[in-house]
């Protein structure tokens, strides 16, 4: 479980996060939604410690991020996996080396075991026969799967995904969403996903927080979202004609 | 404002150096990165160093021969002048400036691209020290391999001079060999190699600094790669002056 209490983050005189609190539960896909520029990415990067927050607390199963020394932070990071918006695969090394990278860096596994683990993770994301290829040789959807395989290689307790289906066609996007949900449940991870895609929200949103202009404007589940009377969330969800039609039928 | 920015940049550069020279997380992974960098940044530069050195050696010999066209000056002085020019300045300094362009822009643009495509952040999330993993192997590769490149350059520069002298007929081969051996001071080679190692450190770390802290997109990567080449070239020239004062005086 990850607990976030009243976090604030500014860049110069621009305040991006203005006191967000949230609890992200284990074994659930926790979605952070909001318009582009609402502060979702800064929020996610603050959670993983890429940005130091100005105020507030972030707690990983009772361990306060701000109170950790470098070694404790390093230890925590081996419990994290992250899928970046642009995949962030290392383009100078093969897919196999991308997936085994963290194992080689931190594990004491023999090479054979590392390869077995890489093959297991690649198979789990339904990728086969791409071990020796380079990231640039794969499609966007395949690269996303590799990024997920790389994120899960150390068997993380916490999985973070920043816009995991951006740039993908709707069908592939749903496949990726479901894959993330499946591995979250299978490995009982605490998963936090940034998205502005309403299909993802309806498909895998166990718990959702909605950020508007750096503040949490709504919280609920995918079932609540269509029936909520909150003006901010309605404005976001029903900007789509499809969802307006769905609401009319409810 | 400019002074404030310059002080900030120098401070950030030294902070980055502090992060770079930390204990590696895994010697095996760093070794792999070192070998990749040695191949990419070092071995890939051999051909350009060879071609330039061969021709510059020839040009220096021809120009010296035409400028020493005096019956009172023995022909073998042409070879001596070529040797001293190549060993003292051309190979260590000019070749390092060329490498600042080739290798420096490569390092800055590679790290810059990694920054904008979030690969550096991915390393950080994994718990890897990105400064150390990305910059340390490159720095060691250049500091160890550039002296080899410079020795190749010295050798080929002199060979180029010998071939040009023989082909054009400005100095007889026997005179050229005699000139090469005349008053040879082996300390000059050591001086050149010490300079080269300092220049290699400058190229690797300054270029890495400009790449590592890219903010923005592809355009900024290009701008920072140019800044990396310009700044490391200026730093090489300044360091050359300081080292020459310290070592030769």
Question: Would you write up a description of this structure?
Answer:
The complex is a heterodimer of chains A (250) and B (249). Chain A is of the alpha/beta class. Chain A has 2 domains: 2-79 and 157-249, 3-Layer(aba) Sandwich (Rossmann fold), CATH 3.40.50; 88-155, no CATH class. Chain A is 40% helix and 24% strand. Chain A is built from 10 helices and 10 strands. Chain A has helices spanning 40-47, 70-77, 95-106, 111-124, 140-152, 170-186, 198-204, 222-225, 231-237, 241-249; strands spanning 2-11, 14-24, 29-33, 55-60, 63-64, 80-83, 158-162, 190-195, 207-212, 215-220. In chain A, the strands form 2 sheets. A 6-stranded mixed sheet of chain A has the order 6-7-8-3-9-10, sandwiched between helices. Chain A has a 4-stranded antiparallel sheet with strand order 2-1-4-5, covered by helices on one side. By secondary structure, chain B is mainly alpha-helical. Chain B has one domain (2-248). Helices cover 85% and strands 0% of the residues of chain B. Chain B has 9 helices and no strands. Chain B has helices at residues 2-20, 27-42, 46-67, 76-116, 119-126, 130-168, 173-181, 187-212, 218-248. In chain B, helix 4 packs parallel to helix 8 and helix 8 (187-212) packs antiparallel against helix 9. The radius of gyration of chain B is 21 Å and the shape is elongated. The model of chain B has no long low-confidence stretch (mean pLDDT 94).
Any idea what the CATH superfamily of the largest domain in chain A is called? Answer: P-loop containing nucleotide triphosphate hydrolases
β-strand number of chain A: 10
Low-confidence stretches of chain A: none
* Backbone CA Rg of chain B: 21 Å
How do the SSEs of chain B run, as a string of H and E?
A: HHHHHHHHH
Q: Under the CATH scheme, which architecture of the largest domain in chain A would be assigned? A: 3-Layer(aba) Sandwich
Oligomeric state of the chains? heterodimer
**CATH topological fold name of the largest domain in chain A:** Rossmann fold
